[in-house]
Design goal:
CATH topology of the largest domain: Ribosomal Protein S5, domain 2
Shape: globular
Radius of gyration: 20 Å
Distance between the termini: 44 Å
Largest sheet: 7 strands, mixed
CATH architecture of the largest domain: 2-Layer Sandwich
Number of helices: 9
CATH class of the largest domain: Alpha Beta
Bound molecules: ligand DP6
Structural class: alpha+beta
Strand content: 15-25%
Number of strands: 13
Oligomer: single chain
Order of helices and strands: HEEEEEEHEHHEEEHHHHEEHE
Length: 331
């Protein structure tokens, strides 16, 4: 079967020269309406659309250059990696989409600006920055929508990290993935805030990829997810456009909890949330009863992320002194 992303790369590569040094940046993102479940695992084609907010200067700086030593070299946060590490082999496999068998040894250098203490995964920003850097290095003239389509092959959530701000990834329908890419919403919300409450910053128990596939394969609750998630995504998009923070927050929190419910029903169960995550949620819910306007969302890990508006920031940081606050529309 044809693959739209691979076709785009091979068409663009016809006019490409040898790789040159090129540096790119992509922000990480947090989904307010989650991507959970694939209809095609090799292309990372989702069963439902998703909507995220990008994390401004928290992301990945990636440089691609010809390797002078004549062999591939991958480094992450200043450390040259062994080729057997997961990061290095994934990055090179992705670069192979562009090299297509040509002998073009590359040096790939990535530096994440996401504080390690935040415990956020960086595959979204990592593959988005690598896509931008490879396209630049090979001087391909591709649009951002096309780069989003290509980044999807690395990791689904990377589809959304091509842009800043609020971003929607439409699930698309085409088998070759030609209509499954992300686009930004033309909405600026200067008072929008995100806080990361770190719970467990070590490596996660299961990758999001394994957790997602296992849930689709075994959870009797998963059947209810795709339609509900699609409706949540549409609703959240409408609330972002209206800047209705309360309705947006309530639905984003419900969407995240529903995603975690599908995992808990998987056989055997997957539980990314720990006692500490639940304790944070209890504290948040108690504070909300007393008027705090903040909502939670959680991904394939124990950390809790809060969304709120600028006027609630002091209350949030008093309640959670460990919170790391991000301003997505700064500057
Ligand atoms: C829970 O994008 O990491 O963070 O496509 O298999 O690489 P792959 O999965 P990944 O899954 C992210 C799942 C999530 C929700 C989200 O970001 O939408």
């Amino acid at each position: 079967m044809t693959d739209a992303a691979r076709d785009l790369i091979s068409k663009a590569m016809v006019d490409a020269g040898d790789p040159v040094e090129f540096a790119a940046y992509a922000p990480s993102n947090i989904a307010l309406s989650k991507y959970w479940g694939k209809r095609d695992r090799s292309r990372n084609l989702p069963l439902n659309s998703s909507l995220s907010i990008s994390l401004a200067e928290w992301g990945s700086h990636t440089e691609v250059a010809p390797s002078e030593s004549g062999i591939d070299q991958v480094s992450l946060n200043g450390e040259v990696l062994d080729m057997g590490t997961a990061f290095a082999s994934k990055a090179l496999k992705f670069a192979d989409l562009f090299r297509a068998g040509r002998a073009q040894p590359l040096k790939i250098t990535t530096r994440n600006t996401i504080p390690t203490a935040a415990g956020l995964a960086s595959s979204a920003s990592g593959f988005a920055a690598l896509t931008r850097a490879l396209c630049g290095s090979f001087s391909l003239s591709l649009s951002e929508a096309e780069m989003s389509l290509i980044a999807r092959l690395g990791s689904g959530s990377a589809t959304r990290s091509i842009w800043h701000g609020f971003v929607r990834w439409d699930k698309g329908r085409a088998e070759d993935g030609s209509d499954s890419f992300a686009t930004p919403l033309d909405v600026t919300w200067p008072d929008f805030r995100i806080a990361i409450i770190p719970v467990d910053v070590g490596p996660k128990s299961h990758s999001s990829r394994d957790g997602m596939n296992h849930t689709v394969d075994t959870s009797p609750l998963f059947a209810a997810w795709p339609d509900q998630a699609e409706a949540d995504c549409d609703f959240i998009e409408a609330m972002v456009r209206e800047q209705n923070f309360t309705a947006l927050g309530q639905r984003a929190e419900a969407n995240a909890l529903a995603m975690h419910a599908t995992m808990q029903a998987a056989r055997p169960a997957i539980t990314y949330l720990t006692q500490d995550s639940w304790a944070i949620l209890e504290r948040l819910w108690a504070a909300r009863k007393n008027g705090l306007e903040a909502y939670a969302t959680m991904d394939a890990g124990a950390n809790v992320k809060l969304i709120f508006e600028a006027q609630s920031q002091d209350d949030v940081t008093t309640l959670f002194p460990e919170a790391q606050v991000i301003v997505p529309f700064a500057g």
